[in-house]
Amino acid sequence: MLLGQNVNSYNDISILDGNGAVPTGNSWALSQGFSSICKVKSTGLRFSNLLDRLSIEFPEMRFRFTSPHPKDFPDDLLFLMKDRWNICRSIHLPAQSGSTAVLERMRRGYTREVYLDLVERIQNIIPDVGLSSDFICGFCGETEQDHADTLSLIKSVGYDMAYLFAYSLREKTHAHRNYVDDVPDDVKQRRLSELISAFRESTGQRYDSQVGTTQLLLVEGPNKRAPESELIGKSDRGHRISFQNVPLTDVSKLPPHRMEIAGLGDRPAEDALNLAINGNKRNPRIGDYVEVLITKSSRATLFGEALYLTNLTSFYQKSRETEKLAQMEQVI
Description:
Elements: H1 47-57, H2 75-83, E1 90-92, H3 100-106, H4 112-125, E2 130-137, H5 144-157, E3 161-166, H6 174-178, H7 185-208, E4 214-222, E5 230-234, E6 240-244, E7 248-249, H8 258-262, H9 267-278, E8 281-282, E9 289-297, E10 302-310, H10 312-331
Parallel strand pairs: 1-2, 2-3, 6-10
Antiparallel strand pairs: 4-5, 4-9, 5-6, 7-8, 9-10
């Protein structure tokens, strides 16, 4: 995981030549319609360049990043996330508010409409992306209509996760110097409750839609509610999924074309394959990748049946082969 203040605003100027020239083909355009109050004098390699290099050098390492800013999601970053199976299809896209008037007072550099356009573009390029966000209710001067706009944005986007807060004034900020914290605390708390309700309905639908799918999980550790018998893993989209801690076959260590070998009717080959499968079982450990079939949703947590131990390459190559077969069957 990569962390930082606006991590996707990464700017590596160490590669600039003596004239301050940017490498050929490197674009520093912001997301369409976005602006920034920060002016960068020297522009070098961008976050997409860093992520591109890391994902190539460490093909079996899963990359997830957080604390980005919506302004820094150009198309090259989105297409990179679509094409590389070790870059998680999970994007944290802080909105803060669904009201253009409030966003302007926050100096966010975008409008409600521009934010929604970016969401649509992300979902078009990465159809199975998981989106999360941050929202603040009760910001200085927020009206009931502003609040209603935020509620409608949450319902429109359909987030997988969100961090929701009631506004509290901080000293030495732009808001502290220029605005009055004029929304009463009881109103802030009521609006926060309404945001939470809207979010739970949205995320519940997203969780329910995962039932019946096969997911690749990175094992994080025991399920605190059943530490002796269950493990928790995180999916590509950032969902936490609980499953039984049982011995599993590591399919990444089986011989190539194992299914074809088993279907030849060659007894020695079948025996060797069975020995490889049955003698290659162990319980998952923290840091392992596990293929899991999602069987149940509580609308806040997912539950699954562990199928195999695997790795990134094996899982996604199999997924692509399955997709190709499905496409061929449709043509036939």
